[in-house]
Amino acid sequence: MCISVAVFAPLRTTFSYLPPESDVSEKLFIGQRVWVPFGRGFRVGVVTSTNCEATPYIKLKKIAELLDTQSLLTAEIIELAEWASKYYHHPIGETLSHAFPASLRKRKKIQAPVNIDWTITGLGRKALESGELKGKRQIELMSQLASFSSMNANDFKAFNWDFSWRPVMKTLMQKNFILQRKYHSHSRVAFPNPNIGKRVNLNSEQADALEKIQKQFNGYGVKVLYGVTGSGKTEVYMELIARLLSEGKQSLVLVPEVTLTEQIVQRFKARFQGSVGVLHSQCKDSEKLDVWNGCRNGTLSVLIGTRSAIWVPMKTLGAIVVDEEHDVSYKQQEGLAYSGRDLAIKRAQIENIPVILGSATPSLETIANISSGRFEEIPINRRAKTLSEPVRELVDISKGRGDGGLGKKLIEAIGHHVSAGGQVILFLNRRGYAPLMMCRNCGTHQICRSCERHLVYHKRFNALVCHHCGEKMSVEKATNCCKSPDLFEIGIGTEQVEEKVSLLFPKLRVGRVDRDSVKNPKDLQELFRKIANREIDILIGTQMVAKGLDFSGITLVGIIDTDSRLFSVDYKSEERLAQLLTQVAGRCGRGSGQGKVLIQSRQPDNFVLNKIIYDGYRSYSSVALKERERLGMPPFSALALIKADSSIKTKADKFLICLREKLMKNSNADQVFVSYPISAFFSPKRVKYRSLMVMQCQRRVLLQGLLSEHISWIEALGRKMRVRWILDVDPEDTL
Ligand code: ADP
Ligand code: ZN
After folding, report:
1. 426-458, pLDDT tens digit by residue?
2. Of 275, 293, 533, 634, whose Cβ has the fewest other Cβ atoms within 10 Å?
3. Quick check: CB of 550 below 6 Å from ligand 1?
4. Cβ of 582 less than 6 Å from ligand 1
């Protein structure tokens, strides 16, 4: 008998080892990390079986070291990883490594941290109630402590007090009003009183939705909270979480991008204080480890995180919420190409708990799942605070569209709304000044040397920039194209809109949100603060303004350009446009004023655009689903994409052509469509050249069967031809 170990390496098999030196076989657990000899060195791996059969005639090596004394994962997470490894055809060791924070993917042992918390004493309570306490800070601190059984430093940090609370605490401890306790984190389960923080009274529709969700709340089920923008979905989530807290259960909330959903995190913290953990790509490794640990041992009761949070083991998970379930960022594009939303559903099934998918614009696959009865729809059709939806209007700009992409009608509307005391959002999904610069004389337009893409003109840097790899070229250099260069700009970006708006409305205060102006969550928070305090009249931004913003002052949203999206060849791009338009439009009319949305287009008769704008997302989605069915596209078929990377174009293509031939020889070949290789439109920086091949099949099982059958063959071919490749099951992009 031996131990099988999934090594953290891109290998599809597990490896057999003997137990370590001393006989500790009973100390081995599935999910435990070990340090094992591997090749010429050592690697970290995870035990996947403690009594597998040894392969005869092979001399096994011993496990060098046990890194953990127990499994740090839950059985459910191990099952999830095994499922994901099969579904996405990804090596088990690498898949399992997702379940650990970066610092534990190395040879590092975990120590139970010593935590400190504070409780109010009887003496303290008396002092507080009798009014004997005098200092304002002391009273503030003591009244918070009085409402919770115990609090830790995180809880206090969440208050964002404008004084430092530690000295105050020290004084109060000396008076024996507060007791300090030390404990190992495993011993504390901190479920705060869920009704202390800020709370709104749900309106009748929200209350109905809450009741429907809670109806069958013990066990697996997928509920789609299909609520228009501003319908108060977040409040419903918080009520659910409060209920779970009172039952001693944890919650997991997935959000698209935490930097953009900062507002939501603040709301959760205001309600649930320090028991909220946040996890996203910008957290430090040490923070990630702390949060991971807190979730695993139960000291954190609510986890808000981006897609990778789906891998965090939780002690007593009660439900999963996936907010904005339609968002593309739930799909990982490289490596293990998983969908955080789909794994959330799978995890809920494994854990036998409910999962709530929330959106104002659910993905077409989710809507199809509602129609087939697999998911339950729970609608909220009315906004929470205002009675009316914003009025939408499609504006024809085919006959000239004025300055910086702003048509006459939009310019008038801006003036009108701002003088009536409103704020304005202008949306354009392109940063920089102009997407293209061309020489009138010789016709040259500059492209990036490494990515072969158009360089975008940024006036502020006086340079042309590749939006893909960041390479810069000075304008001066760009004018070396011919003897009498005469450069002019084509198209518009946010920088240009900002410039034109400032010229048109010199008295108004203009802000810009895009990746050039907002580098980190702090910048964004500062901008939010300014919007909330009415220090900005007009906000210009890319898709960063589409998500999550909830400001009551905004009465006008102008969408500057929609047309480029209408003609993309990707089958999902129209759905994305519908979601984006609906979401951006939803940012306005959240206060007392009537909201207005102006959508500029050169295609005012376009059927899809009219459907989205005048009939709404729900109506659009049913038309779009019929179209998908007619064309046999997902969700009425299954897709997989193979991406081949190489330094030479022909090599990547040749790899895919070999693969195509092999697949076409298969007995089920007539039921599978395999495309010829095409050049990828998007690829990560380090990749020199990427080719794609699409596989499509009416039945998922067939496609999955074909992939399972060939995966080892593909791997061998890649090694032989020195081509790196990625398999993307259910791709978000086919470009
Ligand atoms: P969604 O997540 O559906 O876009 P939110 O939960 O962000 O909506 O709610 C939109 C706004 O309405 C927020 O400012 C929220 O505080 C407020 N709100 C939600 N529900 C209520 C309610 N029942 N009473 C008063 N205000 C509410
Ligand atoms: Zn480039």
Report:
1. 999 888 999 888 888 888 888 887 777 789 999
2. 533
3. yes
4. no
